[in-house]
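Now read the record:
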Amino acid sequence: MHDDGTIGCVDFEFADRSDPAFDAADLIEHISSRSVSDETWEALVSELGVETRR
């Protein structure tokens, strides 16, 4: 993919149909997500249609 001299790449390694709750859990538990606040994750998973329970 390219646009105005910028080149990008799409990695389809994990592209597949999945359950939104599984996708959200996979994102939240990834090591790179440790710096993201709980409030941000709660907003994100609600936008994905996943209900949070406390």
User: Anything to note?
Assistant: The first strand starts at residue 2 and ends at 3. The chain has a mean pLDDT of 80.
